[in-house]
Structures are given as C-alpha cells and as structure tokens.
Amino acid sequence: MPTRRTVLLSLAVAVPPLALAAVGISHPTDLNPDSAAYWRDLHIGILAVFPLLGFAPWIVVRGHNLWLSWAAGVLGVLYASFYTALDVLAGIGAGALEHEGMHDATPVAFDLGDSLGLVGSVALVAACVLAGGFAVRMRGIRALPGALLVALGSVLFLLEHIFFPVGVLGQLCLAVGWVLLVVQMYRDSPTAAAPAGSPRR
Questions:
Q1: pLDDT in tens, 30-57
Q2: Interior angle at CA 99, CA 95 and CA 104, nearest 5
Q3: Secondary structure (DSSP) of 59-90
Q4: Domain residues of the chain, as ranges?
C-alpha cells in the first residue's frame, strides 16, 4: 500500500509532464500570423511548468547519496535556467514578434533560443540517466522499466520538445517513468530508504 508520502511525491513528478503533454496536443506545428497569438499565450501559460521537470531526478536520488543529490540538483538548475530561456525567446518572444508583423526578427529569437535550450535539454537528459541509473543500482531490475522510460522521455523531449505526437509521447514517458521510480525508491517507509548506516541528506 503506497504511503501518503509516496503518493504526494508521485504527483509532484507526474503532474508537470502530464500538463505539458496536454498542452503539447494543441501546440501549433508552425509559427505564422494565424498561430502567433496562441503560440505566444501558450508559452506564457506554461512558463512556470517547464522548470518543474528538473525536480524529478533530484526527488529520486535525494537522501541516498550527497554527491548524487548535488549533481542532480545542479543539472536540474541548469536545465530550468537554459530551457526557460528557450521558452521565453522562441516561445513568448518569437510569438509576439510574429503577431506584431516583425517576421524578419523571429529567426534570431529561434536561433538563440534553440542554442540555449539545447544546453538545458542535455542537462535534463544527463539528470534523468543519472537518477535512473542510480535507482537501478539501488533497486535492481525492478527499477529498470522506470529508468528506461525517463531516459527515453528525456531524449524525445530533447528532439521534439512538447510537439505532438513525439514530444507528447516523451512527456508521457517521463510521467510514468518517474512514478515507477518514486514507488521503487520510497517503497520501504514513509521516508526515503537510505542505505543502512548512511545519514539522510
């Protein structure tokens, strides 16, 4: 029977990617004068959601190993910072420029946003692989499905962001994978199952 803590942590790691998957279904494929206003407003609406993806790897590894907790935290911050720049530039900024008829300026916003967003996406992939690999080391084969799902989801996010259908599938993989990992890592007690003799952090 899952504990209240496990349920709350599962919600914490699942709700952000599920929200992004729902938004991704209606995300315009192309930015043009007809889609510009919705493109801009959509990215304003999810501005605070994208960074939340970076918490999940830290939630999985925290309390087990100091260095891994720090590594997951740093990678999460890198992802949140640089991917937010992509959201602001290529999402809000490019949409606003296109809406105002400044078509020649949108490629500049896209190019800079993509360059910064790539750094964030790679950091998220690294954090997912780190957390998934650690979970498999701690819990064995039972953690492998979750680890594979979050790795796949992060790569699909790197390649297609949240665009339908591949990007949406990536977010669903992240949601399911993180829940599976949380259940495995927190299944022993209401608190994180730290190895015997090691302090919680």
A1: 999 999 999 999 999 999 999 999 999 9
A2: 80
A3: HHHTTT-HHHHHHHHHHHHHHHHHHHHHIIII
A4: 4-185
